[in-house]
Specification:
The chain has 372 residues and is α+β, with helices and mostly antiparallel strands. The chain contains 11 helices and 17 strands. The strands form 3 sheets. A 7-stranded mixed beta sheet has the order 6-5-4-3-2-1-7, sandwiched between helices. Strand 16 and strand 17 form a beta hairpin.
Length: 372
Amino acid sequence: MRKVAVFFGGASCEHDVSVITGMLAVNLLRGAGEEVFPVYLGREGGMFTSPLMTDVAAFRSPSRFTPVVFGQGAICLAKGRKKPLFLPDVALNCCHGGAGEDGTLSALLDWYGIRSASPGTPVSALFMNKKLSALAARGAGLPVARSFAVREEEWSAEKEAVLLRARELGYPVVVKPCRLGSSIGISVAQEEEALERALAKAFRYDGEALVEEYFADKRDINCAAYRVGGEIRVSLCEEAFSSGEILSFGEKYGGGERRNAKLPADLPEDTAEDIRAMTARLYDAFDCRGIVRADFILSGGKAYFNELNTVPGSLACYLFGERLSEAKKLLLSLVKEGAEQKREKKATPPTHLLDSDIFSGAKSCKERRNLV
């Protein structure tokens, strides 16, 4: 039996979905005999726990929860002497979006010496930003839709230059906040006036937006991967269906995680294998950990990378099997892998600058000497 800290919630537009994922993980791992400690990240910040955290209904009154903080290798009471409450063998991140998925939580876990069964800081931060993730995917050799990023201040100061770039890209275009998920804030603009409205909408949520070419005949294809025992395991491809120009938040989650989708997707065998191979390439190239889900756009028989979700809804367990027993087995393998990961500490060479008198005294900041 392992001690597993499960993190969920957070200051994110995907907060509620994260609570659902967290409760799923908590209850499945408890049912498998693991000692589980739920940690809820509040909408306005802070971390909390409670024995009441067994069902999503408990989160309608979070004021009853107990505040907690990190300690070295532990989760502690926030008040008083910060008494350790739980010493986890491993943590599982179920936070979608915001500071839970963007690498902040994984960095804190690293800082406090807590092993994690979820993706690390570099890959989480990189793929939380749609502009950077497009650059990274291109660098890994994956096809990516043509796009450009525009900052809010750039739009205000150089509107005509931005409109020119959009015309060169060709209408219609998709406009997305760079650091948001679940299709929130995304619009399709058919012409310049619509582009202005779409950018205004995106800038309500983020200071930077991605303007991307739109594929009218697109199909949304998802594929997930995880690693166990050094082997990368890739799911079948799933197709998610939309009634509109984009796959909306309601279509993703309004009817539960298993919305209007088909698994396996009806794809030519070589196309499906190409998507699965690209998913494995991303996982390996960016040294992922835990489960990630890669989303692709299929158009004209060609698959384009769209985004990589480092903490996907329901942790994408459903792509590896529909039964809860299969999800339980998968989560167990992940926490086992995370708890057993080697934590080899490399040497940090000292500079010994503070052992010298060169920078001593009130005027030490002016002592440049030969440091430049």
